[in-house]
Amino acid sequence: MARMISLDPRVTRMNIDAESAPELEPKPELDQFQTYEVFHQAKTGAHHMHVGIVHAPNSDMALLMAKEQYGRRGQTVNIWVVNTRDIVAMATADADVFATTPEKTYRDVGAYMVRNKVEAYKKQQKEGQDS
Amino acid sequence: MNTEACQDLLFRMADDELILAHRHSEWTGLGPLLEEDIAFSSIAQDKLGHAQALYTILHEHFGQADPDTLAFMRNEIDMRCSHFVELPNGEYDFSLIRHFLFDAAEYMRWTALAQSSFEPLAKLAVKIRGELKYHVYHAQTWVKQLGAQGSEESHARMQTALREAWPYALGMFEQTDADASLIAESVFIGESEVCQQWLAFITPTLQEANLVLPEQSEPVYGGRKGYHTEHLQPLLTEMTEVYRIDPSAQW
Q1: Four-CA torsion B32, B36, B42, B47, nearest 10 degrees
Q2: Span B169-181, mean pLDDT?
Q3: pTM of this structure
Q4: Model ipTM value
């Protein structure tokens, strides 16, 4: 007898004859619930950050499921859920519209040399105190 | 303070939590949805934590054995859980209805205990409030979902489960000799008061779920006196199997 090996050890332990097992029926398409995007807020006033999705039949159930999936590890004060269909996104193929940015470093936040100014100011203040 | 009465209350509550935690945990890996499997297992874990906290009070304030011994080494007749928590899971409809009815009662119970004259219980009530609130929220959402927003079948199943659970649910509020003294000493408001608050609390949710409150029926009593259903002993045997092999093992 060829023994059925499963990822679930409980199934493996049942010693099922793999040959006598019936063929799996193909699953119908879209047999899962729709998805909701989950946004997690770690502290009051902080931004809600996208953390993943849950499957649910409606928004009430999505919120309930999201609480446990994304709120039980680490600090959480709030959770949003948004139906995936309500997300408006650009086409993946249009990623090139962003391509000009890298060479225009003056548009980057990092290009503003404010850090140098802040440090120069701090140094000046400190020297003022010392003298 | 009447220490006998207080211990009676603690054992009743702790044993209910322990046994229901075990029943809930039997769903782990078999839940109807991945997300729900995780949520229900997590709730089971919370319940086990509540039982442990109550056994710890018994140990620290009343000189009872340590929590593990109290949980795993007592005989069936010494258990004070209600018949309601002993019943097998059945299908998910019954487990959800039991979760809803039990956790609503637990919420009322602990809300009252926040005002208890017995400080360790009052402190614990404040500490676990958030968990209890979440359990009730989880149960209410599911009951409303399957009762009012699901299919004809889901509604019928929930209504049947509610009818079957009802006499056992009423049995949660079985009074013991301890009640009078607990009330007199402001340790606890007593079972009959909690039962009234519970009925007022669950009625609106059941209405929203299009579920009909069963006719008043005879409550199933006995658990608080050590008389149990045939289902408890097999559960205890299974639950304590590993512990009994080597009680001194460290995890």
Answers
A1: -70
A2: 97
A3: 0.84
A4: 0.81
